[in-house]
Write a structure and sequence with these properties.
Radius of gyration: 26 Å
Shape: globular
Strand content: under 5%
Structural class: mainly alpha
Largest sheet: none
Helix content: 55-70%
Number of helices: 22
Number of strands: 0
Order of helices and strands: HHHHHHHHHHHHHHHHHHHHHH
Length: 572
Amino acid sequence: MADEAAPVKASPHVYAEKTSGGNNAYHNFHNDFVHIQDPNERRRLALAEIDKAPFGWYHVRACIVAGIGFFTDSYDIFAVSLLNTMLGIVYYPGKGSLPTSSDNAIKLSTSAGTVIGQLVFGFLADHVGRKRMYGLELIIIIFATLGQALSSGSPSVNIIGLIIFWRVLLGVGIGGDYPLSSIITSEFATTKWRGAMMGAVFAMQGIGQLVCAFVMLFVTLGFKEALSASPSVKQCDGYCAVAVDKMWRTLIGFGAVPACIALYYRLTIPETPRYTFDIGRDVEKAADDVKAYISGKHEGNPDDITRIQAREAAQTQMAIPKASWSDFCRHYAKPKNGLLLFGTAGSWFVLDVAFYGLSLNNALILNVIGYSTSHVTNTYEYMYNTAIGNLIIVLAGAVPGYWVSVATLDTLGRKTIQMGGFIILTILFVVMGFAYYHISSNALLAIYVLAQFFFNFGPNMTTFIVPGEVFPTRYRSTSHGISAASGKIGSIIGQGAISTLRTRGGTLENPNPWMDHVLEIYALFMLLGIFTTLCIPETKRKTLEELSGEEQPAPLPVASSSSHGGKTAESL
């Protein structure tokens, strides 16, 4: 029996050395288990330490580092409608608005770039590492944001073409942030509060929208004198046009500020422990493995010979399958896994088809709350009403919905919130669609606010969180990227194809005769979301290994020799 208990392959004199720290947001769990030689046991104990860690300030800091990216993403996406308004005033004098084709092209260009970023960054994060990719997306966002803010037309280059180019590039960076921030947060989070941590990261979208509306308000107030001199946006020229040109450049350029603040912390994050064990299989790696949550001190590099020996042992002893194209196909060929990917991708797709369609009623909603732009007397009032109206819309339902989700994700559960959200949204869209011409404007306002709330206290939140939890580490980022890209494709279809149906047969008296039918179509997609939700599991209070089917049981206690003081491997 003594022979059976002997270590396999690894030399009894080969011990790991401690690794260096990173920054204040991440604790180095690697050093806590350097005395364990079996890589599978080291993996189990280290991941259990992360899963059971009490919630602390280092978790808060990690959420802020990831959340600033989503703040920036949301700011830049929300700013596009305000950007288009001001571009129309500056570059189309006499008309005061962009052509419909240019307006749609600028809005959809960001979504197109986002699809590319989600797929590419999702794939690369699984193949070259989360650490190597994290921060690169912020560099792209900063570069593209500054490029937009400094763009100017010329006789040979149209300003609209330049803005589209920069927004496609911006979309690539925004898309990369989705899988990276989700899986890095989930892989470092404690199991008990993982939903709240991931939700808090995503909820920064609401704060980004809010800040964008405030920046728009402040720049409008700052140029009040110049804007007030123009009787309408069609006659905004000279001093007024220069003011609006400065306004949109300031609004867009400000989006790079939080990204610059977060860039250092993203570039110095650790590699996640799960990536280190399951994909890197390099249990001795230093700063590239698991940087510190709390300690920021560098403690040196491990011995190269020890690192090579441990890696060779891990290649044969690790029980987790290696990632490969054949393994990917084999994994998702299993009905259970294939349905899971269909559930996350399908839910995100049907959600985003209707999520962006809700903004079709913004003009009517602004009129109801008294901030319509149709009866203003000068350009200042037009811009002021636009800023205040957008501020109210964000505060009405979006921001409360995000944070109610954060408070309840780990108690009610992800699946319950998503299912309830889809059911309520189906009812709301059915009422809006079939009773569109029979309900008052105030009633429509109430439904609008409820829909905003239950989008965010519902599937808009959970479709981001669940794909970051349910897939195995070796395909977690790729699968999240596929799910997120499906959602963004849905938004392109919702904005570019379905929403345009509302003008079918339109006249001057009734420009949107098909609005009710468009809302009915969105109701159908919300109904489909109920069925796609059935394909996902409940993930609250379960470890990532439980959810992905890769949980390894603790070894049975085995009596050791007297030289070890009678302790088992587990007691060590």
